[in-house]
Design goal:
2 copies of one chain form a homodimer. Chain A has 9 helices and 4 strands. Chain A is of the alpha+beta class. Chain A folds into 2 domains: 79 residues, Glutaredoxin; 106 residues, Glutathione S-transferase Yfyf (Class Pi), Chain A, domain 2. Chain A is globular, with a radius of gyration of 17 Å.
């Protein structure tokens, strides 16, 4: 029997953090299995005791890979990068790597946690304007940064973790009806990235758990 | 004239994200200059146009190093690790590195942004119970993770970025009167870490901008 099992991704089709990991797998050509965790059905399947054993934070994604169970999307992607380095998702130069990680962290710490499902459930009625506020605040910072760092992609002309984080955040922005014409650099990069196969196959519109009415 | 200038840290004595970077510099024995950015005086010095040029997100820390300007504390620390690898702040094994980054990201994305100054200003009257809620939620996830990964420090017996992130988050928890006896693993690690010189010299109680009445 082969012991080299495929990685398993516990995720949700519409979770932007799950989408980051799906894209990283796709860019590196890594085959994996998906186990859907429905964040809204049954009051949220991530809240079960069984799932909590895998992910004490009760969030998606979780990945089982190489005998370890990992959570936190960027930590998972850095692990994939270190163990499956080709094609790379970080540039060679330390300065450019730092720019990539700065963009990732701005999104992953500075925007997404302030507009995710758990937080918005606590906010209640004002949740749309709350989400818009924090996405716009983040994009107002990201736009001038990307204007300096971007070539064809977020940092220069090579695809990186920054691109993997950008696209799902723009998807969230559009769900919350943020006017993206304010952010021409972000908008242009997103449009370019969405033409790539790795973003298409990992898109929320075509996952195993995507409901019929939301399928592309 | 020497062109190899010392790094400059733009930070605030009580900012947990600034403290992370101060500790990383201290652990690696890197000499640096500090420029205080007072987050409350004058309505917040991080909001000036001058500072926005350095950090479009209008947050601390920002670091000028090796001719580049970087923001986002973890991106800064990863850059320091890549360019000044000794002593290391990441273990050698990819699995253990992933555990370190998972712990860092749980704090940096999953706790801190939900209790930071900007957010709490938006929350208003309920800010203390809000901050407690999100810190306790995060620590309830972190405690069982650390129970599995910790030795003397967060991951095994070598100090890492995870420790650098943990201590400032416990400091915030204590400011918001979270009962730390619920989290014996976190509490014990924090007590051990606070005995180390690198955490002492970077502590909010002894920075250039620490007000007289808060000095240790």
């Amino acid at each position: 029997m082969a012991t080299q099992a495929k990685p398993i991704l516990y995720g949700y089709f519409r979770s932007s953090c799950s989408w980051r990991v799906r894209t990283a797998f796709a860019l590196k050509g890594i085959d994996y299995d998906q186990v859907p965790v429905n964040l809204v059905k049954d009051g949220g399947q991530q809240l079960t005791e069984q799932y909590k054993e895998l992910n004490p934070m009760r969030q998606v994604p979780t990945v089982k890979i190489d005998g370890v169970t990992l959570s936190q999307s960027l930590a998972i992607i850095e692990y994939i990068e270190e163990t499956r380095p080709s094609p790379p998702l970080l540039p060679a130069s330390p300065q450019k790597r730092a720019q990539v990680r700065m963009i990732c962290d701005l999104i992953v710490s500075g925007i997404q946690p302030l507009q995710n499902l758990y937080l918005l459930q606590k906010i209640g009625d004002e949740k749309v304007s709350w989400a818009q506020h924090f996405i716009i605040r983040g994009f107002e910072a990201l736009e001038p940064i990307l204007k300096q760092t971007a070539g064809k992609f977020c940092v220069g002309n090579e695809i990186s973790m920054a691109d993997v984080c950008l696209v799902p955040q723009v998807y969230n922005a559009e769900r919350f009806k943020v006017d993206m014409s304010q952010f021409p650099t972000i908008k242009g990069l997103n449009e370019t990235l969405l033409t790539l196969e790795a973003f298409k196959v990992s898109h929320p519109s075509c996952q195993p758990d995507t409901p019929e009415e939301l399928r592309a």
